[in-house]
Write a sequence for this structure.
């Protein structure tokens, strides 16, 4: 079974994926793949540097992701260009991992692979999955977590939140919603219930 896990920035997708992995789900994090794609020598590195210039590079020639983020969240057209460069490489690697898993699944239990990707609804790739899960939290919690996690001011954090599809819209695509507003124990309870439901599906 292929499960898509998505949601808004700083809503808890990474935490949720880790909890599913703890229960035995095979997890694939699109962000981790994207980070590899943009490393020096990676398939997206040269095109990104050509597009945004050497000012996004650290002294060791590694792309400064914080500096790049500041650029793309201020300019929607540049954000779209970055996505057009990186996303095809990420999707190709995701498919490679999933195909390898299917060929070697053997007696692996449960037979569930979960892909955590922030933009799968926006990009239309959610259609590739059997089940879609959306991680949600209220905006006050989302804003506070994002400001703390990325050391951002309120205005900058709001720009990043508002650059994405609204959570209310994403929830419309969900087969199940994980409300991550009320602490880890409550989130774990919801994830356990969803995991039990996934295991019971044919």
């Amino acid at each position: 079974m292929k499960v898509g896990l998505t949601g808004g920035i700083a809503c808890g997708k990474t935490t949720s994926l880790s909890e599913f992995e703890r229960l035995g789900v095979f997890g694939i994090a699109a962000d981790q793949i994207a980070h590899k794609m943009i490393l020096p020598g990676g398939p997206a590195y040269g095109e990104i540097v050509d597009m945004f210039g050497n000012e996004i590079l650290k002294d060791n020639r590694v792309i400064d992701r914080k500096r790049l983020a500041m650029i793309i969240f201020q300019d929607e057209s540049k954000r779209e260009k970055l996505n057009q460069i990186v996303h095809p490489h990420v999707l190709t690697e995701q498919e490679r991992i999933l195909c390898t898993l299917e060929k070697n699944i053997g007696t692996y239990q449960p037979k569930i692979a979960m892909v955590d990707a922030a933009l799968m609804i926006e990009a239309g790739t959610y259609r590739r999955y059997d089940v879609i899960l959306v991680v949600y939290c209220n905006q006050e919690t989302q804003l506070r977590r994002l400001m703390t996690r990325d050391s951002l001011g309120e205005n900058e954090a709001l720009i990043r939140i508002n650059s994405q599809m609204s959570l209310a819209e994403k929830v419309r695509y969900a087969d199940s919603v994980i409300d991550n507003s009320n602490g880890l124990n409550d989130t774990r309870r919801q994830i356990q219930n969803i995991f039990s439901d996934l295991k019971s599906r044919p």
Q: What stands out?
A: The CA atoms of residues 28 and 115 lie 5 Å apart.
